[in-house]
Amino acid sequence: MTYFVHESSYIDEPVSIGSGTKVWHFSHIMKGSIIGQNCVIGQNVYIDANVVIGNNVKVQNNVSVFKKVTLEDNVFCGPSAVFTNVMNPRSAYRKKLDEYDSTLVKKGATIGANSTIVCGVVIGEFAFIGAGSVVTKDVLPYALVYGNPARQHGWMSEGGNKLNFQKKRNDIMVASCSICQTEYILKNNRVFKINENHAD
Question: What's the whole-model pTM score?
Fold first, then answer.
């Protein structure tokens, strides 16, 4: 075994867990789930059946990741974050699996502590969800959102700095990050790294 599972946790085979991943106290990984390499699954975490989690993902204590949720590489889920997968649940009227909605959290995104991600949304690359937010619609790549419901309040770098865009030559909006040593441009309400292709 090239991964670590604390003796108090339950792993329902078959699952796929990548090398270097650590599963801590009182967590439950359901069958059919896929967890990548070098992940940290904190205390009292529930990973539902057939959930897909990429590499280097950090899932902090008390997080529930339900069916049809996908977390791409380098996603961070803060403590007690919750994902849903049904829009109109009723205890007496059980939903079929094909009635569940998918949720996709793209690479590098951060989900703050105690946030709720309502199903059916896509959270873009390197987006940043503030603590205690309720996300009810798609979030743009690099967007900073928070509140209930979550609304956009700016842009974040890949390193986790809030970006301060200023007009430069030819009226191009440019910002830089001291953490990741990268420059970004803002064009048509989208953020791109300077060296990325950002055609209209």
Answer: 0.93
